Automatic annotation (TrEMBL):
Residue ranges of domain HTH lysR-type in the record: 2-59
Superkingdom classification of source: Bacteria
Membership in a protein family: Belongs to the LysR transcriptional regulatory family.
Biological classification of the source: Bacteria, Bacillati, Actinomycetota, Actinomycetes, Kitasatosporales
Keyword DNA-binding: yes
InterPro entries given in the database record: LysR_HTH_N, LysR_subst-bd, WH-like_DNA-bd_sf, WH_DNA-bd_sf
Name assigned to this protein: LysR family transcriptional regulator
Cellular component GO terms held in the UniProt record: protein-DNA complex
Keywords attached to this entry: DNA-binding, Transcription, Transcription regulation
MF GO annotations: DNA binding; DNA-binding transcription factor activity
Amino acid sequence: MFTLDRLRALAAVAVHGSIAQAARSMHMTPSGVSQQLAKLEREAGHPLLEPHGRSVRLTHAGRILAGHADRLLAQLAAAQADLADLGDEVLGPLRIGGVGSAVRTLLPDALAALAAEHPRLTPTVVDGEAVDLLPRLLSGELDLLLIESWANRPLTVPEGVTLRTLVSEDVYVAVSDRHPLADRESVDLADLPDTVWACCPPGTEPYEALVQALRARGVEPGIRYSVAEHLTQLALVARNLAASLIPAMSRHPAPPGVRFLHTRPPLRRDVRAAWLTLNESPPVRACVAAIEA
């Protein structure tokens, strides 16, 4: 029995022409995609891929099965959309995933408004980073994401995902009020060559944005503290143990002893809603509208 995840992997290779690019589009590792395809070949009873230079290409059997996979996945998405739009009622489950700052700042008021207006809607929320949440959206485990995109490192999403910017905000360097540059209004990252940093874990959007921003100014980042929560990062900043890049919505509440300096050149972050285009449902539309309101 062919599984949808394996058929999605084959369809992605057919579109992108390589396992590596298919893996990036699905936010999986190449080895994970290869494992899915190996299982699918055993189930199909035919080789589906063959070497082609330094990459691979679909065999005749692979092209036949990929065509069926495309039609099946499109039909499944259409069925889900039809059921979701039935009567255009805002009811049933709405599974939301979001980065912590957006969950804390944007969601509570929106969820309260939805509870009052649509009492038959049952939202659930998990927090996390885009690198972990996007695969769960693509697999159908989540319906709506609130994820971040940094101007110096824009977020890329696979085809078939709709993005809508909800908030665009400045990013600040947070330093202790005992830091030598704490009396400035702004700071060039090039002026922080020996700074210890606190940041979200490697692979996350904030981590990659910090590394890219510092290296663009000729500074090799010294990230000593890898913690997900901005409030924990600010606790380290307050004790003069580290500096941190903090988006505007995460400045409050900040512990005493923290100064927020504008960056030169300016850094900005967007918080965006993301959902599968073919799975846009009344609950998704209602939630996005509530946040925008």
